[in-house]
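Duplicate of earlier report; Probable tRNA sulfurtransferase input re-posted below.
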Amino acid sequence: MKYTEIMVRYGELSTKGKNRKTFIMQLAQNTRRALSEFPAVRIHADRDRMHLILNGEDSQLIIPKLEKIFGIQNFSPSVQVEKNVEVLKQSVQEIMKEIYTGKETFKINAKRSDHQFELDSNELNQVLGNAVFDVFPEIKAQMKKPDILLRVEIRQDGAYLSYETLKGAMGLPVGTSGKGMLMLSGGIDSPVAGYLAMKRGVEIEAVHFASPPYTSEQALQKAKDLTAKLAPYVGSIQFIEVPFTEIQEEIKKSLPQGYWMTVTRRMMLRLTDAIRAQRKGLVIINGESLGQVASQTLHSMVAINEVTATPIIRPVVTMDKLEIIELAEKIDTFELSVQPFEDCCTIFAPPQPKTRPRVDKVEEYEKRLDIDGMIARSLAGINISQIDSSTPKETLEEEFSDLL
Ligand code: ATP
Ligand code: MG
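Output:
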């Protein structure tokens, strides 16, 4: 039978007290955006669940999109049928004919929110269970952990049947935790960090430092392609390309090489923070993982972090490389990340960066640079593009009628 509706169960947001309404509205909006290719789908969000009325759209195309929306615990595609006992019996039989292979146990789980309906839930379980035995006399019913759990819901607007529950992406709806700037290189770690921040509800904008002609067009494209891999979790992501050539040349020219890396990172952080302030972000997110390279020792982090009081979220900081790679594979960024286009850090990498840079020395060396001027010139040259399409603006009000 063709699915007519998908019933979505909220994740953690159901515990959010008075923020609940905001969370649900954000989730509905994110869902609308993720399903913008399916304009016929109607979204009805109420306090406990969200219903997607498919209006003829193909559930097989919609399900993979839903699986990426944070804030969804799980969802059940379902079929709406007439509220009539005979129709229900036939539909249950039809579904069982489609899915029963001769081996599974089953259970009917009926619920009735329309108390006018002629049978109560116990009676429904009986009658519909018997309808299954009529077509499969040998089938076994099992109350605990049946292989097939056929849910039947009698609601005001119709009867709904479902037998599959698919796992959602969990987390919180993107946008409910505010906005952060993701420092996105072309590597393995930062896209994973972005994914994990979005999972906890953070809306991200990608900040990428490029140093043409030292870094190639392909390296830039790679960062954009990585951003495109993250976009389906939210609909679209702003990609902010920041010119970094002058800064890297100046650092290389004026400072001892042991301090190139630390000062480079401090400049990146200053710039990201300035962009964050302009664009009203709350935090910065990066892909640092403790001890992975010289810039990611605790001493380095302290020396780099010193330029700002803005919180820096480091979602992968305590993860091993292999754990990060596992996630990168899951979100399909790994293949792209290992493409060999060098980024600005690789090209200007000093042979022996300090793993314990001294803050007093860093500050002394930085006096040789026109920090404010370089930052101003870089900011003047940023280039912002939107990766992936966003939703056509629609009025969502009708869809929230139950909430408002
Ligand atoms: P990644 O795999 O994310 O590139 P990495 O292990 O290669 O990380 P580094 O190159 O030391 O680590 O970078 C540490 C973090 O600094 C990155 O995760 C990223 O957040 C930020 N970063 C590095 N290079 C850039 C860049 N060109 N543009 C934006 N952010 C960058
Ligand atoms: Mg890197």
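Residues 185, 187, 343, 345 surround magnesium ion (ligand 2) (CB under 6 Å).

Merging into the original ticket.
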